[in-house]
Design goal:
This protein is α+β, with helices and mostly antiparallel strands. It has 15 helices and 16 strands. Helices cover about 40% and strands about 20% of the residues. Strand 9 and strand 10 form a beta hairpin.
């Protein structure tokens, strides 16, 4: 029996990877322009990191982590998100001792055990950024601006930015008291998960997808009503910065995000048409997380975005990927002597960074021409016994059919110049 890929995972064929190339190129370009540096962390970490860094009341920790015991009897978890590993790296390498802020970005696979559905997989890929060392509202606005700029550069439309403030621990304690009092007569209407959240982190009840829980919290006091002056002022500044750069937003007082570590600014970027999950990016400020993970008190903020969801949106909106497969030239050979000369020219072409290939299964002339067309080659370079004798290759433009003879000694450079001129 054929072994198939595990449920909730994907094979990305060449027609898919053109979208990945565009995404990755855009990620590296925009992060470089905004002054962010790439960080690569292990795919697995000690489970304790996510218990402390993500939060024990989150769905990730309670239901979705891929955890196992290794041969050293250590509990290991495949990373379900990128912020906690980034915080761990920041602390382990003592980067808090450097001049701040520290600005990172990452891109790579994450793992969560959930029910696979449109835009949601058990192995998925995430792009994220994290900034440590500044509480300035301008940093919040920059992080959000980068996210919006990223999607716009990809060519996506119909984006909706939702923002909220979830306050500081002091604000949340006041809100918790009011929310618990509101929920007291509605305990019987809450789902089992939210009953558990009720004492540990009742704010997360706003994030529940259960219709019963959503009905139960209608009219509940929001965190916005209990923001302290500092948190309210910070949130107002964030809105002012976004307005200054013409980024429209919706203040959504029920949005709390799905992780326990958020403080102050929280945000999501929504888009329609990608299945049950309409969010393609989300993040916020987490000023207590570094300290919670064992480091000095250090403010932080960031966001994460699932690449599979972005690609689904690109397809749905008709955004093209980057085609890196089409050849510049396909070498067509006739006879063994032609193959030897063609192989030499093939390597010369590649040294000039020309995308080139050749026949290796003995096709006829007609079949080789068809193959050149199938591979999208702009040119065909024909070399047979006659061409070898004259030391002149026959260069054919596949679109126009125009042909010219070019000396073997200069054909590679000649084609490279033609290709370079086209690309410019």
């Amino acid at each position: 029996m054929l072994t198939k890929r595990p449920r909730g995972t994907n094979d990305f064929m060449p027609e898919e990877t053109v979208f990945w190339r565009k995404l990755e190129q855009t990620v590296h370009q925009i992060c470089s322009e905004y002054g962010y540096h790439e960080l690569r962390t292990p795919i697995f970490e000690h489970t304790e990191l996510f218990l402390r860094g993500v939060g024990e009341t989150t769905d990730i920790v309670e239901k979705e982590m891929y955890s196992f015991t290794d041969r050293g009897d250590r509990s290991i978890t495949l990373r379900p998100e990128g912020t906690a590993p980034t915080v761990r790296a920041f602390l382990e390498h003592k980067l808090y001792g450097n001049a701040q802020p520290t600005k990172f970005y990452y891109i790579g696979p994450m793992f969560r055990y959930g029910r696979p559905q449109a835009g949601r997989f058990r192995q998925f890929h995430q792009f994220g950024i994290e900034v440590f060392g500044s509480k300035d509202a301008a940093v919040d606005a920059e992080v959000i601006t980068l996210a919006m700029d990223f999607f716009q550069r990809l060519g996506l439309t119909g984006l909706a930015l939702h923002i909220n403030s979830v306050g500081c621990p002091s604000c949340r304690e006041t809100h918790k008291e009011r929310l618990l009092a509101f929920l007291e007569p509605k305990i019987g209407e809450l789902c089992e998960t939210c009953l558990g959240r009720r004492e540990k982190n009742p704010l997360r009840i706003f994030d529940c997808k259960s219709s019963d829980c959503q009905d139960a919290i209608k009219g509940a006091p929001t965190i916005a009503e209990t923001l302290c002056p500092d948190c309210a002022g910070h949130f107002e500044q964030v809105q002012n910065y976004l307005t200054a750069v013409n980024i429209p937003f919706v203040v959504d007082e029920t949005m709390v995000r799905g992780l326990d570590y958020y403080t102050n600014t929280a945000f999501e970027i929504m888009v329609e048409g990608i299945g049950a999950q309409s969010s393609i990016a989300g993040g916020g400020r987490y000023d207590g997380l570094v300290e919670q993970c064992g480091g000095p008190a250090t403010p932080g903020i960031g966001f994460g975005s699932g690449l599979e969801r972005i690609i689904a949106t690109m397809k749905q909106q008709g955004v093209a990927g980057v085609n890196g497969v089409n050849l510049d030239v396909y070498l067509i050979t006739l006879g063994e002597i032609g193959k030897e000369q063609a192989f030499k020219i093939l390597q010369q072409l590649r040294s000039w960074h020309v995308k080139a290939d050749h026949d290796v299964i003995g096709r006829s002339l007609k079949a080789q021409m068809k193959q050149a067309d199938k591979l999208g080659a702009e040119y065909a370079l024909i070399i047979g016994a006659e061409e070898v004798e004259k030391r002149m290759a026959l260069l054919r433009n596949m679109a126009s059919g125009d042909q010219e003879e070019v000396n073997f000694n200069r054909v590679a450079q000649y084609i490279a110049e033609k290709v370079s001129g086209r690309q410019e």
